Amino acid sequence: MPLDDRPATKTKAKRKFDKSKLPSRHVTEGPERAPHRSYYYAMGMTEEEIHQPLVGVATCWNEAAPCNIALQRQAQVVKTGVKKGGGTPREFTT
Predict the structure, then answer these.
(1) In a 10 Å sphere around its CB, with 0-12 CB exposed, 13-18 middle and 19+ buried, how is residue 48 labelled?
(2) Is there a contact between 59 and 94 (Cβ–Cβ < 8 Å)?
(3) For labelling alongside 78, which of 64, 70, 71, 84 has CA 20 to 30 A away?
(4) Whole-number Å distance between alpha carbons of 5 and 35
(5) What is the DSSP string of 33-93?
């Protein structure tokens, strides 16, 4: 069935990721990492978001130069794509 013909669903399918080889496992997996996860909870992240792959989105946007102002919008589009792909985006500036 083509993507455009799929029936719309209200619930997003939950995926279980094997994070055993991902660097984010050092702060998100296991009872000994509870203090690390508490920081993510304090930032408003859900348990589901914490256990998905964390994907860094680098941007160098700033308000000082007109040529850089659009970079924030581009980063937001990238973050939307990461979410649609089942990851949790974490934006940082360079």
Answers:
(1) exposed
(2) yes
(3) 64
(4) 45
(5) GHHHHHHHHHTT--HHHHHSPEEEEEE---SS-GGGTHHHHHHHHHHHHHHHTT-EEEEEE
Query: 80 with 90: CB under 8 angstroms?
Result: no
pLDDT in tens, 51-72: 999 999 999 988 888 888 899 9
In terms of Cα–Cα distance, which of 59, 56, 58, 53 is closest to 85? 53
Q: Rounded to whole angstroms, how far apart are CA atoms 64 and 59?
A: 14
Q: Determine the Cα–Cα distance for residues 6 and 39; give it in Å rounded to an integer.
A: 38
The CA–CA distances, whole Å, from 36 to 19, 27, 32, 72, 74 equal 16, 5, 9, 28, 29
pTM: 0.73
How many residues comprise the chain? 94
d(CA 72, CA 63): 10
